[in-house]
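Recall that a protein's primary structure is simply its ordered list of amino acids. Everything else, from secondary elements to tertiary packing, is in principle encoded there. The following example makes that idea concrete.
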Amino acid sequence: MTKAGEGATGKAIGIESIENVTFATTPSGLFSWGTQNSPEWLLRRNVISIVLAAADSAPAADAAQDKALDGKMMKYAKGKTHDGEDIGLYFDPATKMLAGFEVLDTETMLGDVDAQYVFSDYKDVSGVKIPHHIKIRKGGEDYSEVQFASIIANDPKAADVFSIPDALKAQAAVAAKEPDAFPMQLVKVANGVYQARAFRHHSMVVEFPTFVAVVEAPYLDTQTRMLAKAIAAQFPDKPIKYAAVTHFHYDHIGGIRAMAAQGATILVAKDQEPALRKVLEAKHTHPPDDLAKAADKAGKIETFEGKKEIKEGNQTLELHTFTGSPHVEPMVMAYVPNGRVLFQSDLWFPAVGAPASPEVVQLMESIQKANLKVDTMVGGHGLVGPYAEMTKAVAALKK
């Protein structure tokens, strides 16, 4: 469950309850499933702010042109948003209402993309006409469509939804002051091996004599920055040299650009490269993100097939590609021989009592096929638990 509220300083904050622990975070740290974009970013695209910006910016001398939108001829004019972005506006000549607009969106994963927002089903809300149907296209393809059953203005009950629980007010005050506030804890698993625990998307950190490797890019750029701060505090003078990807689902590579901005080499299985390269090479201009600002300091992609081994001193990290998973393929699991620790994402949730599934069975078979001696499982979701917990769950499933 995610809620938004206001901290003691008047800045908006978010609250999330995950795995029986509740945290407070800033808008950029909010868990916004699916879009990977913060609510603050999405609110810049609401119809009222667009109309007000257009009214402020449209040159009086420019005559509207005829231009089609969804097969219907509209009046089209250009203007600017309050952030200074160029925008094209479509007005319905019959209703005089804003029928849609087009603008360059910059998204966390897609980067710069031409977007078109189409409005319809205008209804009166407290004396103001507001569209109850919104359709969005990005890159010329359908992106989302929303139909509102009802909209209420200035509902006093809404304040209760966004109120901050008393137990969280102290955390909320901290989150309001710190732009990158995001829960991050390095939990020791074995010598030189840690679970970087955030909300529900976690990473594994492996310490080497002169550098650190991270397995699993954090969920968001914000989470990546907090992870980098935690690593710098615990391992002074040890840069993040590598960041390994387990699979290319967006909720597991949402912070990959910020990780590359740290200078980390991004390790991906060969068949994952096209998806990762598209994300890492996308342009980000509204606004530029960490990677766009990093320029030549950014880390590059390095691919591998089958198995990749990173070794320095007495520490070794093995990355094993495996196929056949019902979840997605290829998948990558990470193994640290010294601690007999294995990290994976989405397939098994250690120490949370989750039942086994076909994905878990296939994971266990892949571990056995790679002849890995595992004592401890670390999850991209879930916590840290014994390997025996997973084998018992698989045995129960097969009965």
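The mean pLDDT is 85. The longest strand covers residues 111-125.
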